[in-house]
Amino acid sequence: MTAPKTTKRPARKPDPVTAILANVKATHRSVADKRMPIGGGHNPAKARRYFAEEADRWAFIKMTRDKAELSGWDAELLEQLFHALAETGHPETAKFHLEKVAAYAVAAIGQLDREAA
Length: 117
Hints:
With 117 residues, this protein is an all-alpha fold. The protein has a domain at 44-116. The chain has four helices and no strands. Helix 3 (73-86) runs antiparallel to helix 4 (91-116). The model has no long low-confidence stretch (mean pLDDT 91).
């Protein structure tokens, strides 16, 4: 009598986001205790106006690039980052944009990894 055949499952391909998030967690541990405002400087209101203008500028750049099929993570990241910095007076809106920055940054790191492979 022969023993039943057992088939091994193929090894799972590691999720690249897991490695990226592990690096993010490690960096977070080193900066988590820093206490500072999101927008610093001598004139935060003036800075928020500047950041709002930059957010609009990068939104226009992103739209122009998208139409020309020349998209890049730089425009995605900068638009969202400037929106977040412009909205420091509205914490929920700022958090929304910072979460997008984090997601776009992870996607951009993934793109760098794919290009290096």
